[in-house]
Amino acid sequence: MVHGGLFHTNTFRLGGRRFLLRRVAFPRNPSPEWFVVDLFQHTEQAAADRNDLTFALARALHQGRFDADRLRMMAREYGSKDTQSRVTTALRVPARQRSRAVHQDDRHAVWGRRSSERHDD
């Protein structure tokens, strides 16, 4: 929930542990696609690798586990430019490459090419 367009953050201690509470934009009834976007938004806190998540999302899309239109909408509404770009990438990868990409031994392979072959054009 957003109050007046401002996001609030607060920390408190409980039982000797410090907790961070943040108020962020949140749909009334979050869909699985919103949780995908939220995970991309919080990869550092989840100790997740954004490239690995992009691969996993491409595979899940190939398996029909998410609604592509809803995912685009959630990324546009709740995601950063980077998250939007990664969702778009996962959606654009041809089905045969989605399944091949997740079977690469190299965790940093990019859609069938190893990271050593990747060009940052």
In round numbers, the mean pLDDT is 76
Sheet-strand content, in percent, reads 5-15%
Tally of DSSP β-strands: 2
- Sum up the overall morphology in one term: elongated
Q: Tally the helices: what do you get?
A: 5
Could you describe the largest sheet, including whether it forms a barrel? 2 strands, antiparallel
Based on CA atoms alone, the radius of gyration comes out at 17 Å
- Low-confidence region ranges: 1-7, 101-121
Strand order of the largest sheet: 1-2
Q: Note the gap between the termini.
A: 39 Å
The portion of residues assigned to helices is: 40-55%
Oligomeric state of this protein: single chain
In the residues, how many domains can be counted? 1
Order of helices and strands: EEHHHHH
Instruction: Assign the structural class, choosing from mainly alpha, mainly beta, alpha/beta, alpha+beta, or little secondary structure.
Output: mainly alpha
Structure description:
With 121 residues, the protein is mostly helical. The chain has one domain (28-117). Helix content is 44%, strand content 10%. It has 5 helices and 2 strands; from the N terminus they run E-E-H-H-H-H-H. The protein has helices at 32-41, 50-62, 68-78, 81-92, 95-101; strands spanning 9-14, 17-22. It has a two-stranded antiparallel sheet with strand order 1-2. Helix 1 packs across helix 3 and helix 3 runs antiparallel to helix 4 (81-92). It is elongated and about 50 Å long. The model is unreliable at 1-7 and 101-121 (pLDDT under 50).
